Sequence to fold (353 residues):
Amino acid sequence: MLFFYNSINVEAEAKQELKRHRRNLRYNTDPLALTDTAYVNKLITVLLTLSSDCRYLRWQLHYRFVNNFRISKSIFMDLLDGIDSSVDTRRAHGISKKEKLTACIIFFASGRYQHGVGKDFHVAMAPTTFSKVLRRTLRPLHSLVGDWINLRMTQSERQEAKEYFFLKSGIENVVMCVDGTHVKIKKPQERPLTFLNRKSFYSINTLIVCDHKTRIRAVDARFAGSHHYAHIWRVSIVRKYFQRLHRSGQRDKILGDAGYPSEPWLVRPHRDPDEGSAEAEFNKKHSSGRMIVEQTIGVWKSRFRCLAGTDRALNYDPKRSGLIINTCCALHNICIENNIEWQQTFTDLLEDI
Fold:
């Protein structure tokens, strides 16, 4: 009995010591101390592989602030200043508003609330603590960045978009593209089968609308993975928006794939055209114009790895997962507006040297 009692005491003391260690790490680690430079200490290593005639360049790009947060330091400070003061309630955990925002942004970027050994920055926080932090921070952050997602375009933006899509597809009056993407989530407790998609994993079927600059103009993350794209489109505010435009005399259009219904304001490709026919040629041009939405979704999920679903699913209920999806869309647009590039081509890397 005495041994059992001592074991409990030792375990309790170990837990308290771990809490103190995490708290000290948080106090002594400042994310704003990271440099805002996109790349530092660039190292080129020329290696011989397979044979003496086979050489390749190995790039070791050490990202700092943007690599950890996907946003710049100034944007981080703007978010920090704009978040409701109620988020700064420390309570027993002793976690400041800056630490809470840091944990959430890093989670969006990496899909994990903590980085592994050797990363530039990590947040010392237990899983249960982070879950509480996310719950208290997500909705204020979602409300703050919500204004960055907007269907309305200025006249100059509309004209620029129409010129871009006409050059790509030869289709007139196109200003946006629409597509759907599945964001993997954990098995929901309520009505789980409705979230099981045709690829046999649980997801939210998310509607994404983008413009010619890869800005996300609309997102709808309300629907379970089993819902079809056509149904989500029929009840979306995007369809109602373009319908109103046509009734008012505007002829703005949106490109969608064959899964969407044919409407005066939605241009989709022909189904199963004969090879070499005019319909087949139209489909090629249509695909060229619509490629921008696939690129947008790819960059969006690459930038915010919590959405990628390659290693893990969002470990939250559908409602909170939807808030995360919406928030990441807005943060993506903030990055676009501030010219924060995430993916670079090999040619770009060569020019940086």
